[in-house]
Specification:
2 copies of one chain form a homodimer. By secondary structure, chain A is mainly alpha-helical. Chain A has 11 helices and no strands. Chain A binds a DNA duplex through helix 3.
DNA sequence: ACCTGAACACCGTTCAAGT
DNA sequence: ACCTGAACACCGTTCAAGT
């Protein structure tokens, strides 16, 4: 037993079954210890969740961009961040509930800031661009997380009016969305609007 | 006592204090009735939450676009939807947790589809555009909801490196983001990429 | 310093019993 | 048809008591 082991097991429980599955009694069972022993190590459940999120934030580490142009590199950072978040949906949901999303994003935003600086975007403009792009990433991940759990993807009670003049649209909306395409679409729109072209790109369009 | 009154009071509790504040015992107190009486009317807590969300979905009604061009009208729909969602953050959080966001968005998406049709966007393209825009709206609202509750807006433990070459950026990131500007920025980028200009707009640019 | 067991105040839910 | 009270299995947390 140690504080670290408690946080380890707690993290695993949250990761696999969601925050609600982390009860002090279940945790004590997995640790092979009395419920009350946990309190000596971590204080209480709230502090334990804080510790879990703290570790996640620290683990986010630094993402490295790939590609040559600033647009490619910023895009790659956003995609890698999304991939990393998607791998642990319950944990990022927890981080979100506890208002720790900004902390988690710091490393990527730093990396993006460097790319923006290269193409002459700085100051308030850079801050707005960073935040718009990272907001797109979290927004997408949070939405997907709900879609992953929730019941049927297709609206249950309500139906698109049958008399619609655009049957192809109706059919497209009846199938679950292509989340990768959706994410890429929004990201490209943002990057296109916020990250200037480099000289090389402008020369050969 | 009636099923309607139970759902009324439950809705008020969730709206004001969040879903966690809706306990069967507290609800019974506000209703002036024994806890177990509630079960006769609504089944159980889960079904009660379903009923609350059902009512919200039905209440979303139809939003009317304003403006003349398709871009303006689509933009106005997204802005009005955001305003409506922001007015009841806890309830939309609940709808999100229960995977009912698509249901809630149906009316607006219908209205947007009409606007897109006017400028010749239909079928799969229209479906993708609709979903990209509404994803931006939910994403933004979900993020703001967390920001509203969570502790300090500014990252707690971590700090932007002090040696940064762009002090204006560091300062901009140290102040809470302008959420309206952030939302408008993303929305404009999306609408610009997805909704074609009308003839009139192209003539007088 | 670290762990246990009993105890308390809370949950959601069931069910027999009342009117 | 509608409501009550007792009861059950769960929570998180405190605290005196052990080693």
């Amino acid at each position: 037993m140690s504080r670290d082991r408690v946080v380890d097991v707690a993290t695993r429980l949250v990761e696999e079954h969601g925050p609600d599955a982390l009860t002090m009694r279940r945790l004590s069972q997995e640790l092979g210890v009395a419920v009350t022993a946990i309190y000596w190590h971590v204080g209480n459940r709230d502090a334990l969740l804080d510790a879990v999120v703290d570790r996640l934030v620290a683990d986010m580490g630094t993402l490295r961009p790939s590609g040559s142009s600033a647009r490619e590199r910023v895009t790659s950072l956003a995609e890698k961040l999304r991939a990393r978040l998607q791998a642990r949906p319950h944990l990022i949901g927890l981080a979100h509930e506890r208002g720790r999303i900004p902390d988690m994003f710091l490393p990527v935003e730093q990396a993006m800031a460097a790319e923006l600086a290269r193409v002459g975007v700085s100051g308030k403009d850079a801050a707005l661009a960073l935040r718009a792009i990272s907001a797109h990433v979290v927004g997408a991940v949070l939405l997907e997380r709900a879609a992953g759990r929730g019941g049927p993807e297709i609206p249950t009670g309500l139906v698109w009016p049958a008399d619609a003049s655009d049957p192809e649209l109706v059919e497209a909306l009846a199938t679950p969305p292509d989340r990768d395409a959706l994410f890429a679409l929004g990201l490209n729109a943002l990057v296109g609007a916020l990250v200037p072209l480099e000289d090389a790109e402008r020369a050969v369009p």
